[in-house]
Amino acid sequence: MDGFSVLKLLGQGAFGRALLVQPKNSEEKCVVKEIALPKTRAGVDRSRREAVLLARMQHPNIVAFRDAFEADGSLYIVMEFCGGGDLLHRIRQQKNVLFTEDVILKWFSQMCAGTLHVHDKRVLHRDLKSKNVFLTDNGTVKLGDFGSACVLNSAEGVAKSYVGTPYYVSPEVWDNKPYNNKSDVWSLGCVLYELCTLRHPFQARSWKSLILKVCRGSYDPLPQNLPYELHHLVKNMLKTNPRDRPSVRTILSSHRVSRLLRKHLPSQGSEVERRGRWRRQEGEAVSSFLGQKSLVVTTSSVEGMFQDDRRRRWSPGPPDTVLGVLGNAQVISSNSTTFSGESTSEGGDAPELQQGRRRKRWDRDPPERLLSLLEKAQLSTSFRTYTIHRPGTGPFVGPLSGENDDVVDGPEDVVTDESRLDPRSDDDDTDFEEDAPLDWLDGLEKIAMDP
Ligand SMILES: Nc1ncnc2c1ncn2[C@@H]1O[C@H](COP(=O)(O)OP(=O)(O)OP(=O)(O)O)[C@@H](O)[C@H]1O
C-alpha cells in the first residue's frame, strides 16, 4: 500500500474491508478492497478470481478495475470510487418520498446494461442487490462487488456464493437448483421493486416467512401511478420459475418495457445487440498484471464452466419441495428433531416428497434438513452477503425493514405468482447456468452448527 494515502475506511464486508485512497501518482481517488488471502491454494485462486472477473468487465455501468496486487498476505483490488455511494443507502435517504418514474427507468436501464455485459461475458454476478449498485457523483449507476461471482468450492464458500444475500435469493436457489442467468434477473427484479417502492419485495422477520414468500412469489403490488410497463416488468422478473423470467437481453431489446428503458441508454443502444465472449487472452493479461501464473488456470477453469452451452430443462412443477413443507406449517415445531420425525409421519406433503424425488439434491436431503437448520440460524442485522449467526444474536432484519413490517407468516394482501402452477413456458432464454448445483446445505450446516 506504499503507493497510496488512505483517506478513510468505507466499510467492512464479509471478505475484507474497503478503503478510500488517494494514489500518490494520480489525482483520482480510488477504492482499495483488501482481502486477506486464505491459506489454501484453492482459496487464494478463488480470491484472485474477483480481480480477474472485475478486470474483464469494461463497461460504463460497471465499477472500473484499476489495479491489483498482493502484499503481506492480502490481495488488494484497486477500483474506481463511486462518490454517490451505494443504492441501498440512497434508497434509505428517500424516507417516504418515492423516486420519479424517470429516475427509476434511468437507473434501472443502466443496471440492465451492466448486467447484460456481465452475462455476455458468460459470468453470473450472483450477488446483485442495492448495496452492490453504486452511484457516481454525476449520477451514473455502476455494478460492483464481483466477490460472489468468484467464490466456489469450499463448503463455507459454497454456502456464501450459493445463497448470496438471502433477501435477493431466487426460488430456484432455495430449491437447490443451479444458479443461472435468470437468478441474477430475479435479484435485479428485487432491486427494481426497491426503487419503485422503497421497500424490499419480500419483507420477513423469519427465515420461514422469507422463504415462503419468495417461493410463492408473494409481494405487495407496486404503486398504481407507475406505468403499466413497470408493473408488467416486475411481475415478469419475479416469476418463480426462471424459465418464465425474461433475460436481461430480452428486457433491453424486446420486452414491453424496452422502449422506455432504451430512451435512457442513448449512447449504449448498440451494446444490446453485441455479445461478448470469454477470451483467454484477457485472463492472461490480468494474470501477468497480477504476476501469478496460476490465474491462467483459474481463468480457463471459469471459461470451462461457461463453455458448455447445453440447456438443462427445469422440472415441470413449481418450486414445491421447499414450498410444500413450509406451507405445511403445523409440522414445524421449535424442536428440529421433532420436526423431522413429524414431517414424514403426518405432514400432507411428505409422501409426495418421498415419491416425487425429481430433484437430485432432495433425494438425499429433503427440505426438512434446510428447515431445521434455518430454525437454528438467524440473519445478521448488518445484512451482508450471507451472514448467519446462531440463535439469540439479534432480530431478523432486512435491508429495508421498517418498524411496521410483517410479524406474521400467514396470508396477506399480496401479489402472488399464480403462474408458478401453470404449465411451463419455453426456456430458450435461460441460456446458461452453473454446471452443477453445489452443496451449499453442507456449508450452511457448518456455519449454523459451529460452536
Ligand atoms: N467502488 C466503490 N465506491 C464507493 N463505495 C464503495 C465502493 N466499493 C465498496 N464501497 C463501499 O464500501 C463498503 C464496504 O464494501 P464491501 O463490498 O467491502 O462490503 P459490503 O458490500 O458492505 O458487504 P458484502 O460484500 O459482504 O455484502 C460499503 O459501504 C460499500 O458501499
Give a short synopsis of this structure.
41% of the residues lie in helices and 11% in strands. With 451 residues, it is of the alpha+beta class.
Poorly predicted runs of 5 or more residues: 150-163, 273-278, 289-321, 325-367, 379-383, 386-396, 403-413, 423-428, 435-441
Average pLDDT value? 69
Outline type: globular
Strand order of the largest sheet: 1-2-3-5-4
State Rg: 21 Å
Q: Give the proportion of residues in helices.
A: 40-55%
Strand content: 5-15%
User: What ions, cofactors and ligands are bound?
Assistant: adenosine-5'-triphosphate
SS-based class: alpha+beta
SS field, number of helical segments: 19
- The SSE order reads EEEHEEHHEEHHHHHHHHHHHHHHHEEH
What profile does the largest beta sheet have? 5 strands, antiparallel
Count of extended strands: 9
- What's the N-to-C terminus distance? 36 Å
What would you call the quaternary organization? single chain
Keywords:
19 helices, 5-stranded antiparallel β-sheet, 451 residues, globular, two-stranded antiparallel ribbon, alpha+beta, transferase, single chain, Ser/Thr_kinase_AS, Ser-Thr/Tyr_kinase_cat_dom, 41% helix, metal ion binding, binds adenosine-5'-triphosphate
Can you walk through the features of this model?
Its cofactor is Mg(2+). It comes from Denticeps clupeoides. One of its GO terms (molecular function) is protein serine/threonine kinase activity. The chain is α+β, with helices and mostly antiparallel strands and 451 residues long. Helix content is 41%, strand content 11%. The chain has 19 helices and 9 strands. The chain has helices spanning 41-56, 87-93, 101-120, 147-150, 155-163, 171-174, 181-197, 207-216, 228-237, 248-253, 258-262, 280-290, 294-307, 320-327, 336-345, 350-356, 360-364, 367-376, 440-449, and strands spanning 4-12, 16-23, 30-36, 65-71, 74-80, 133-135, 141-143, 378-379, 388-389. The longest helix is centred in the first third of the chain and has 20 residues, at 101-120. About 30% of the residues have low confidence. Bound molecules: adenosine-5'-triphosphate. Adenosine-5'-triphosphate binds at residues 10-11, 13-14, 18, 31, 33, 63, 79-82, 86, 131, 134, 144-145, 147, 384-385. The site of adenosine-5'-triphosphate (ATP) has 20 residues, from β1, β3 and β5.
